[in-house]
Amino acid sequence: MIQNDQATGLRMMVKWLKRHKENPALADIPNPSVRTIAITSGKGGVGKTNITANLAIAMTMQNKKIAVIDADLGLANIDVILRLNPKYNLEHVVMGEKKLQDIFIKGPGGLTIIPASPGRLPMASLSEIDRTILIKEILKSANNFDVTFIDTAAGISNNVVDFVISAQETIVITTPEPTAITDAYAMIKVISQRADRNIGIIVNMVQNSEQAKDVYDRISIAAKRFINAKVHFIGYVLKDPAVPDSVTMQQPLIFRYPNSNATQCINALAKEILENRIK
Ligand SMILES: Nc1ncnc2c1ncn2[C@@H]1O[C@H](COP(=O)(O)OP(=O)(O)OP(=O)(O)O)[C@@H](O)[C@H]1O
Ligand SMILES: [Mg+2]
Question: Is the pLDDT of residue 193 over 70?
């Protein structure tokens, strides 16, 4: 199985290199009016995908042109929570079988989703060159949207951090759990070592706004004191059973439970992010 995956990985690389040779002008920095925002975390399962999907839908409902890239490359997620069945995904792009635009699918409200491949080891551990070419294509496509969200995997691997650094803006999500806070801090440290930027923080699954502020303050004090990193509080999402329920139903939270606590938090976050760049 592993040998098979390695062979596939090699084939992918050869195809990519061939294609890149034929197509050297892959890179295009997004023009300044468009936004690329990476949503990431240190610890897994803190709510990145749910928050990204619902933020993106909330913004689409305000007539913004939004794309979400599922950059959790080896484990597709966003298409599952939105009950989409993509025929093609980023693996087909990496293999040179499809252009990025060919794998776009329409999500709720007309949102564009760029799906990852489900359960594929070669995608989860892309080589640096594959990753670089893929990121360049993604940045180029960002010119077609007002905001492109990049929903990353958790953790500080190169697969994640390269995507984060490539985006203009970064949001780190944490929950109040001490392990999530410690891992968020580690992620902030790694990002700050590679890029001089203000990092936005969203605290998810909180009991109230005071708890969110308290978590943010702890991160902010440590970030300023020990790593000289700049962080910025964007907002919070309350812990709400409507979120897992909407996942189980595979329906967007903000449509299924438009008046829920979590939806109100998502709408407030969408407003804040649309009004202020994280710089
Ligand atoms: N505000 C919330 N209240 C209650 N449950 C939540 C909330 N946000 C997320 N969850 C639950 O937490 C789980 C993880 O959410 P999600 O998949 O969005 O996290 P993730 O950070 O994208 O995970 P991964 O690191 O695996 O990509 C889901 O089961 C979801 O229902
Ligand atoms: Mg996820």
Answer: yes
Q: Does the C-beta of 237 come closer than 6 Å to ligand 1?
A: yes
Consecutive H or E run containing 232: strand 230-238
Mutate to test the pocket of ligand 1, among 243, 257, 260 (most ligand atoms within 8 A of CB): 243
- Extract the tokens encoding 47: 């709510």
pLDDT the model gives residue 10:
57
CATH fold group of domain 2-24+34-275: Rossmann fold (3.40.50)
pTM summary value:
0.89
pLDDT, one tens digit per residue, over 113-128 is 999 988 776 777 888 8
Say how far apart CA 72 and CA 49 lie, in whole Å: 9
Q: Where are the domains of the chain?
A: 2-24+34-275
pLDDT at position 127, please? 87
Q: Residue 276 and residue 268: Cα distance in Å, rounded?
A: 12
With a 6 Å cutoff on the Cβ, whether 154 touches ligand 1 is yes
Three-class secondary structure of residue 123 per DSSP: helix
